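Tokenised fold entry reproduced for absentees:

. . .
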Amino acid sequence: MVLLQLIIFLIQLIIFLSSSHGRIDFFTVSFSAGLTFFSFIISIIARQRTYLSKYNLSIILLFFLMSWIISFQIPLEVSLGNLELLNFRFFYNSEVINEMVAFSALVLDVFLLGVTVNYSRLKKNAALPLISQDSVSSVTTKYSPKPLFILMAVCFLVFLLNINKGYIDSGHGTVKFEGIGFSFLGVFLRLSIIYLSIIIYNNQEKILTRKNSIKSFLKLFDKPYLVFLVIIMVIFFLAHNRVFVILTITPFVFAFFLFVRKKISSITVILIFLGVSVFGTLFKLYGIENILSSSLKINDNYVISKSYFPFTAELGGSVYAQSILYYKWYTTDFSLYGASYLVGVIRTFPGLMNVFSLKPISYDTAVIGTLESGVTYGVGTTSIMDILINFGFILSLFIFFGIGYFFSKMESKVYKNQVNIYTLVIYFSITSFIMFIPRASMNDVLGAVLFNIFFVKIYSLLYLKKIRL
């Protein structure tokens, strides 16, 4: 499997080196997209040969699928004849699209190669997800979640008391959501990751029962915590802000699948993803109250309606940011020399950024892309171009190989018999951002992971205790 993916990488490297300027080339785009998807299928087959074969709600699958759509959907449609898309803001400069697409394919190929290299080290029955009670150590360690929960409750109340009522009434985009309420919500969401990790860590022996359900999963948590999550989701649904809905619920969903060892196929996950894409697009355009009246159609006045599949075209539209940053790198050899990720480390400690007074133009590729484009709205960034701008061509390939290997390693670890708390913290930190990472900088994930690890390290000194089973 690894050898086959290496061959695909080498073929793609030849395509990249031979790609030409000018009109978008059907062969370059379609072959790059097709080869990369074939490499993805190889990684799925490799996964089926491990103990992860039945557990396919995967950070790897979601990251790849979203990155593939961003990198290839719009270029593929144009190469297939949907030239109307060229009349809209999907490409910054079409002269470099062939090279950009070929480079994106290279990056995703090495990402998948890293994934498969880890899979090749795993055996089908090397670590059974469910084990007998006799194999569990008679002495274990557990964390007291109560002090953490009290801190979370304080953060939630400060958020609730400071939110603008006008924002709740469909105010996203028109009413500002900032200040102390926003800050405390951010802390709540970070602490929520740690709380989830502690709850799963403390209850690992319950996975042995083989009878876990959504009811037994919900019983693990303090009831007020579940109420907090519901209230946050309702507030942001009413505000028409899907971002915080996703940030709130995604780690919880991954925790459920991990705890109950819910079996699900890759195809089912992909279909669910497409269904969520339909809902998410309609939610953004029409709001929660008008989705049903939309009849699953997008009005012609929306640019994405020109796409062959408009429900993923909103995600695919991030190729505009990708094309801006690639053009800037390609034509000027522009580099941030890792500044974005230095900022990620600084963000480990909330408020520390204020000490350095760094301007976003010096580290934020989303700001750089927006200023380069000259538009009046934020164009965003993508993880592929963010790493390219920060580390250059060669290092980008090594980094994405490492990310693929690391993601695969984290998934293989959390589904083993006994998991340490830091693995769970890192895993759930990644899941909280997984729906955003492909169209954002990974420095946010880096900052969250480092903060959560540091917090747990301190928390362990205060609230870790040994329990005899």
Notes: The chain has a mean pLDDT of 89. Residues 50 and 448 are 30 Å apart (CA to CA). Residues 383-414 form the longest helix (32 residues).
